What does this fold into?
Amino acid sequence: MFERADIVKTARQMGRPLSKDEEERLRRLHSENVEGYLDAGCGACWLKEEGIAEMVLGALKYFDGERYDLLVWCVMPNHVHVVVKPRPGHDLPDILHSWKSFTAKQANRALGRKGQFWQEESYDHLIRDEADYHHCVDYVLSNPEKGGLRGWKWMGAKEGIGGGTGVPGVNHGQDA
It folds into this structure.
């Protein structure tokens, strides 16, 4: 939190807008902070309920091979990670909106509640090379253990994922 304030203060004192590097650092610091809360199990953990987790996973897989290629996934108790490659004619924001809209309605109905289910924002990252791809795959697949969840069954990878095949254009999205 102090680093974020210092970056903004320095730019103000110099009478200039934030540089691209500073904006990126602020985004990363925010993301790391949010991840810490999520990994600690903060917030509503509706996805811990088997029926809700199963429904979300089903939604992720529903258009796999048609609108996108779902490569790696993990439905955590309070958030979701995916590595997904949109197919031509399908954009990541539209895919995320579809997942969030459908699953929010279904989950709220199942839980007997109304209101916002997912956070409005999502974090997406364009994977630029094979090393970045492997980092994202490892990150998603290690997330349950990092969160203290042993034997977590709401995660997986498409068969053959992780080999040295190269994956340009794959996106990693964080949802919830």
